[in-house]
Amino acid sequence: MNFYTIHKNSELINERSKPGEGVKLWDKWLLGLSAIMYLLIIIVAGIDSGRLRLKSDFNLVLSVTGVLFMIIGQIIFLTARSQNQFFSSVMRIQKERGHVVCDTGLYKTVRHPGYLGMILSLIGIPFITNSSWSIVPTFVAIFLLLLRTAFEDKTLRIELDGYAEYSERTRYKLIPLIW
User: Is the predicted pLDDT of residue 157 greater than 90, yes or no?
Assistant: First the structure.
C-alpha cells in the first residue's frame, strides 16, 4: 500500500513528510506528549520485561493476542492512510491541495479509522512485551489519542466544508456503535 501511495501521489508524500502551514497548537502539544508516551512505553517495557524482569503475569497466549492486536491495528492504520489522500501526521486543513472529506472505505464506518488502528496497535504492546508496567504509559497514550480524535473532529466540523454532513452520515468517531 505504501509503495502504491508514493507512486500515486507525490504531493501526498510531501504533505506527510513535511506538513504545510496551519497546524493547530493543540495538535502540536498532543503530538509532543504522545511522542513522550511512545518513548516511555518502549523504555518501561524494555526495563520491565528485559533488563529488570519485574513481575509480569502475562503468558504466551496473551503475547500472541498482542501480536494479533498489533497486526490488525497496523492493517487498519495503513488502509486508512491509503484510502484518504489528505491523511496527514498533523491536523490542518490542506486548502492548497483542495482538501475534501473522505467518506469511502473505512471512513464509511468510522470518521477516524487511522486512530482506531493506532489504538489497537498500542493495546498490543504490553501483551507482546509481557510488560504489565507498560500498561500505564500505554493507557496515557491511548487517552491522548482519544483527546486528539475529539479535538480533530470538532475542528473538522467547523473548518472543513461537508464534514458536518459527513458526521451525520457516519455517526461514530472511532468505535462503531460506541463513540
Answer: yes
Give me the chain's average pLDDT, please: 87
Residue 146: DSSP 8-state = H
- Residue 107 CB contacts under 8 Å (≥ 6 apart), including other chains: 80, 83, 84, 113, 170
Predicted model pTM: 0.84
Taking the C-alpha atoms of residue 34 and residue 41, their distance in angstroms, rounded to an integer, is 10
Measured on CA atoms in the order 8, 10, 14, 19, is the torsion positive or negative? Answer: negative
Length of the chain as a residue count: 179
CA distance 151 to 29: 12
pLDDT at 13: 58
In this model, does residue 16 exceed pLDDT 70? no
Structural domain boundaries of the chain? 22-169
Pick the CATH number of 22-169 from 1.10.630.10, 1.10.10.60, 3.40.50.300, 1.20.120.1630: 1.20.120.1630
| Structure-block grid coordinates of residue 107 | 471512513
Q: Outline where 9-112 has alpha helix (H).
A: 10-17, 25-46, 60-83
Contact 31, 141 (CB under 8 A): no
Q: What nine digits make up the cell of 53? A: 524482569
